[in-house]
């Protein structure tokens, strides 16, 4: 399996994190997810799941920060394509990020609430407090459609894929607040 992105690795472009004008962010959160393609998937792969996790937050907040979870992306012709800003227009199932830890400190715009958009169940772009953080994008090819619903938790996902993983790969994307 190969992960392809339309930018030079390992650096995640500014447009997918906090380095944006304030009016393009929701309380410092960038909701625009980055595109990626997974190729050379095994024939046994029916769907793909992914996670984007910042483990560099462990010394800062005491745990890894989940930025994005996705599952049940169908494999077509041995690949999966996730377009730019897919998190806001997704047809795949998205899990819960770590925003519930700070949700009392942020607000959701009325327009989002009216269309049922929950910030905790979508992409939440990088916003490291300091230094360069590595954001691990892990792709998991599975031999089934997982029984997940919107807002599933990462620990639930880990239990559900048990015995169904046919391949897994990852790439680290680097990002720093300017």
From TrEMBL:
Gene3D superfamilies: PEBP-like. InterPro entries: PEBP (IPR008914), PEBP-like_sf (IPR036610), YbhB_YbcL/LppC-like (IPR005247). Coiled coil: none annotated. This is Phospholipid-binding protein. It comes from Levilactobacillus brevis (Lactobacillus brevis). The lineage of its organism: Bacteria, Bacillati, Bacillota, Bacilli, Lactobacillales.
């Amino acid at each position: 399996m190969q992960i392809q992105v339309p930018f030079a690795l390992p650096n995640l472009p500014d447009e997918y994190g906090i380095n944006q004008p304030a009016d393009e962010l929701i309380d410092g959160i960038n909701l625009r997810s980055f595109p990626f393609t997974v190729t050379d998937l095994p024939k046994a792969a029916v769907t793909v799941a992914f996670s984007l996790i910042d483990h560099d937050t462990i010394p800062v907040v005491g745990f890894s920060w989940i930025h994005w979870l996705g599952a049940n992306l169908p494999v077509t012709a041995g690949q999966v394509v996730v377009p730019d800003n897919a998190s806001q227009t997704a047809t795949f199932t998205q899990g819960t990020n770590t925003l519930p830890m700070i949700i009392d400190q942020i607000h959701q715009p009325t327009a989002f609430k009216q269309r049922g958009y929950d910030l905790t169940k979508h992409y939440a772009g990088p916003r490291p407090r300091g230094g360069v953080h590595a954001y691990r994008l892990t792709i998991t090819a599975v031999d089934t459609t997982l029984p997940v619903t919107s807002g599933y938790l990462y620990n639930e996902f880990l239990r559900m894929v048990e015995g169904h993983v046919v391949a897994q790969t990852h790439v680290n994307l680097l990002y720093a607040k300017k």
